[in-house]
Design goal:
With 261 residues, this protein is α+β, with helices and mostly antiparallel strands. The chain has helices at 3-20, 209-236; strands at residues 32-34, 40-42, 48-52, 61-64, 69-70, 81-82, 107-111, 120-123, 127-132, 138-143, 151-155, 164-167, 172-173, 181-182, 191-195, 204-207. The protein has three domains: 26-82, Ribbon (Tumor Necrosis Factor Receptor, subunit A, domain 2), CATH 2.10.50; 83-143, Tumor Necrosis Factor Receptor, subunit A, domain 2 (Ribbon); 145-209, Tumor Necrosis Factor Receptor, subunit A, domain 2. The protein contains two helices and 16 strands. The longest helix is centred in the C-terminal third of the chain and has 28 residues, at 209-236. Residues 27-62, 64-121 form the TNFR-Cys domain.
């Protein structure tokens, strides 16, 4: 074999090795990853991860993501990413005695996880997001604050902000922590106040004595008239008593000369 042929064969081998094992400091191509042995291997596609790195004789071996896992980009990784759970927790009405919230994220699944994409979570009604991922997707939410009795909702909560509460001003009250209602003006409804109001309850009014007398007198007169009328009608309908026949001592005789009994 001539020297030129040997030289050409040597160059071809070096070129082949340079494609598989780059020199120190060289980077792999955009569709390659560097294995633990330093080789540049072809990446696995979306929905796949590396089962076995490439060798001089074979390319990269890939396996699909299964179960609640995914891979959303070409990669040289050995494990798929876990799908976001979007855990809503168990919600119960806090106004019901003994109710409570069991830990959860306050989220629901807007889009189901696949082998190539993660779940997309969305904030439940009555919750607001407190933590987001790098992709600006909500990862945790809390329940909106419930305003206490004596307060009102100043700014309603949204998907990104909590509810803002405000104390009721003097002269108004709130029983359920939603709106503040002005105390009742007893005089305007013809009554008088017997108990002051507070931030959580209304004033207590009572009808005045004069109003009671005004209502009571006509009622009493009417009742008296009805009783008199009933008594008079009853008396008229009663039969007159029969008087006993007074004996005179005379005897009556019939035409036949017999005495009538």
């Amino acid at each position: 074999m001539s020297i030129s042929r040997v030289w050409l064969l040597y160059c071809a081998v070096l070129l082949q090795l340079d494609m598989i094992i780059p020199a120190s400091g060289n980077k792999c191509g955009p569709a390659e990853y560097k294995s633990n042995t330093g080789q540049c291997c072809p990446m696995c596609g979306k929905g796949l991860v590396v089962r076995k790195d490439c060798t001089l004789e074979s390319s990269t071996s890939c396996i699909p993501c299964t179960g609640q896992t995914y891979m959303n980009a070409a990669n040289g990784l050995a494990k798929c990413f876990p799908c976001s759970p979007c855990d809503p927790g168990i919600m119960r009405d806090p106004n019901i005695f003994g109710a409570h919230n069991i830990s959860g994220q306050g989220l629901f699944i807007l889009m189901t996880c696949t082998s190539t994409s993660n779940s997309i979570c969305h904030v439940q009604n009555g919750y607001y997001c407190t933590s987001s991922s790098a992709g600006n997707e909500c990862t945790f939410a809390l329940r909106h604050t419930l305003c206490s009795p004596g307060q009102r909702v100043k700014v309603p909560g949204t998907k990104t902000t909590d509810t803002m509460c405000e104390e009721c001003q003097h002269g108004s009250y709130s029983q359920h922590g939603v709106n503040c209602t002005a105390w009742t003006d007893c005089e305007s409804i013809g009554q008088y106040k017997i108990e002051d109001g507070s931030q959580t309850r209304d004033v207590v009014c009572r009808k005045s004595l004069r109003n009671r007398v005004i209502v009571l007198v006509p009622s009493s007169v009417f009742l008296f008239v009805v009783i008199i009328f009933v008594l008079s009608v009853t008396k008229e309908n009663q039969p007159s008593p029969k008087l006993p026949v007074e004996e005179t001592g005379f005897q009556t005789f019939t035409s036949g000369g017999r005495r009538a009994s």
